[in-house]
Amino acid sequence: MGLLSPRTPEPFGFKSPDEAARVINIFLNNNEKLRLFDAIAEAVERFPHQALPFLVAAEKVYHSMENASRYDLYQKRTFDFGIQPGDKVLDIGSGHLPFPLATHLADLAIRDGSVGRNGIPFRYQEGKPVYECPVEHTPFRDKEFDFVYCSHVLEHSPDPAQACRELMRIAKRGYIETPTRGKDIFMVTAQASHHLNYVELNHDVLTFYRYEPWEMQGLGHDILLQMHCRPQTDRERAFSALLYLYPRQINTMLLWEDDFRFRVNFDVPADIS
After folding, report:
1. What pLDDT, in 10s, does the model give residues 202-255?
2. DSSP 246
3. Which one, out of 4, 42, 190, 243, has a CA that is 20 to 30 A from the CA of 77?
4. What's the CA gap between 223 and 177, in Å, rounded?
């Protein structure tokens, strides 16, 4: 079946910034986050010269969500994963912020937090089995899982072709996300996070490129990452909100069923198992 389409945001047809503000406040007071962010995004697009207060409001909500996963912050607004009660769901590369809908967790390194987590301990969840394995070689049966969630993992893979084949082998459906090259460059995250690859979606083909050493340095200073994580002014808060409000511009994101196409534009060393 291939790739599935993103979720369509709810339309509101705001006639003025004041109308948008009234509706946004209703959603905020009712804790209706999906509708809230849909409304803010529409307000920003309809009234770009009055966008700053809408974006500041969004940032305050985003940063009030303690221990929020990427799924909570923006993925479930971007895609309807279609996960049903009783589905067997694997989060491979779950790390310290596991996928909330996962029933099983897996990671390359459970005990060593320096591998991909900057020293942050692996987060266990009660009642959820944990497996230690690389994404390229897992211990699971063919199509064992109804859904596999693989978020910010494949940029680390030494053999992304094998990783992609393995994801399609063990699951019926799944979700993949990686940072784009642009995000790594501007946020200066490739070198610090040990990214090997940057990944693009070209004509529905998940396409992998190996980073050159000079590319991994990015802009050379992580000031934009600091602005995103710890904004100090309204403009910085607006910038931070944009990264969550429009995640497809800075992440490669795809929801797939049955299979997906991929291409690796570099030679994998023969000694990689």
Report:
1. 999 999 999 999 999 999 999 999 999 999 999 999 999 999 999 999 999 999
2. S
3. 190
4. 24
- Please give the CATH number for the structural domain made up of 68-264: 3.40.50
Query: Which pLDDT belongs to residue 270?
Result: 44
- The order of strands in the sheet holding 205-210 is 197-202, 205-210, 261-264
In the chain the first and final C-alpha atoms are separated, in Å, by 30
- DSSP label of 111: S
- The edge-to-edge listing of strands for the beta sheet with 2-4 is 2-4, 251-257, 171-179, 145-151, 89-92, 104-107, 130-132
| Distance between CA atoms of residues 11 and 224, nearest Å | 31
Residues 159 and 272: beta-carbon distance below 8 Å: yes
- Residue 226's contacts (CB-CB under 8 Å, 6 or more residues apart) are none
